[in-house]
Amino acid sequence: MLEQLIEYVPLLVGVVVAVGTALGMLVLNAVLGPKRTNPSKHEAFECGNPSLGPARNRFHVKYYLVALVFLVFDVEVVFLLPWAVEYRRLLDSPLLGGIVLLEALLFVAVLAVGLLYVWKRDALRLD
Amino acid sequence: MNDLFLLAPVLIVTLTGIIVLVMDLFRSPEASGGTHLAWLSALGFAAASAAAIRMWPGSQAPVEGWMSALSVNAFTLFFWILLPLIAAFSVLTATGFDRENNLDHGEFYSFHAFALAGMMVMVAAVELFSLFLGLETMALAVYALVAMRRTSARGAEASIKYFITGSLASALLLYGMVLFWGETGTLRLDELGRVLSAGQCGPILYAAAGLVLVGFGFKIAAVPFHLWTPDAYQGAPTPVTGFMAAAVKAASFAALLRVVFVAMLPELFARSFTFVDLAIAVAVLTMTVGNLLAMHQEDVKRMLAYSSISHAGYLLTGLALVPQLGSGDASLRFVNGAVLFYLATYGLATLLAFGVLARLGRGGDESTTLERLAGLATRRPGLAALLSLALLSLAGFPPTAGFFAKFALLRELVVVGRGKLTILVVIALVNALFSVYYYLRPMVAMYMRKAEGEEPEEIVSPTSSFALILAALGVLVLGLFPGRLVGVSDQAARTVSYKVARGLNDGSLGALAPFAAVQSETDPKGVGASAAVQTGSGDDAVGGR
Q1: Complex ipTM over 0.85
Q2: B-chain residues within 8 Å CB-CB of A123?
């Protein structure tokens, strides 16, 4: 029993270090950090622009859908990047290159159907 | 490219889903969905099933593809034939209900297709992670299907309950898989089995096996993991409930059988009596609790939900036989074969029952109580007869397929258990007897009671009637001539035995001998010739029983 569990000690160390680092930073910051406040520090941060209002604004509920759709296509690009890197190497073999290109096109095509779907169902229309 | 051909049935199903979805997008907003989407998806599913049938002869030697994650052997193909057929029946019986409940749009059908594709990956997986991927694809689509009636509060409640318990089950499965990976360094079922048989089973492996089995327990709704079932089944649109009870359960059982028989047998099950005792206890609890709770339900849909729990109990008795199979016992295949046969016939009868119940939902009416059924025999004698046939089959009355399924399963418990499992058989028989009570209650309501007040109306749908009559014919034909399906399920079950999976041939093949002979004769190119040989051996298996 014990010998088997010993194999998992590195995992435990990893968890302890991760949690310890996060907690330690927070504690150190609270204890050591200088506290100088001024009014602009309490404003919502909008990438350096003067803020337009409170941060807890209400968004249109459809923005949620747009965000979801964005996430899907964002991840699509993430998956395509490693493929693009490997593709140059696979081009050396003409047959394999064709198949790999076809597979990637198929992947994009399936996601294009998804885009067509949200478009036709008016999920991209915000008014 | 060979991989793609192997996966053809799954690809056909996925493509069907995409085509239906796109076709529905270009429908003019005024036009109603009609039945053409249902027919199109049913045809696609039937084509997938046909493709799987076409692949059957070459299936004696398991063919692995996709980096050895999927295996297309007879066991896989059995479910690749069965599951699309269930889905096709399900979408066809749903047509009238969909029209009345405003569900007849592309999503309803394409979610069926995507769930089906997930199931087909799941039953083909010989590696835990692919199995999990298939399971999640199926589950996500089914969660959406349950919530399809967006204005129904009960539907939303059902979907959330199903989603939360389903996620818990997935998490437990994943934890179990992680522990397996951590201990053995592999996720492949056959390698897991080999590692387990070589080394000693430490506590971590027991925890892993336990977590995986509990995860499956949720999916097949075994007691005590059944609490979500009645609410989810009742709140889902009725045709979706039929799909869940028939297809989702069959797919989960197939995956469970594969995991237990290929990876955990006999090392965990046969060596440790506790696992088998647990399996027996869960089987007994599942059938008894399901039956007891079904008795007092006034809602037929809820009653059938509990009945589906008790059927999971009967099916789980198959696991109780594992320790009896210790050293090179070939009768394993019969046990498995009986379980597969039971799954097919139970799925058919369940679809039929829910298909008839779906016809009650005129104008979005959610009532499926016993009172609602009163006088159905005079209003719609055809529907009443079909529902009666389904209930008789579920109860296990002789001319129907349900009788032969129960008979075959219990017979194996007696014969293979060599008398050690007699108590289990008696409990199952008593349960079957008690279940007759609640299966007869809807029939009493339909035939012997008159509707009080205004007579309710049922949905008129020729498409649904067509599918219901086909399913009813299936129930009758399989009850009268079960031989062919028994042969096919035995052949399928043989390929999931751990010996075949690990390529062992310890000379104790016994009844597997004809299989071995056929295998050596099988020539990948001479598909037609080997088909004849296999049909012959399948019949022998039936005759030998």
Answers
A1: no
A2: none
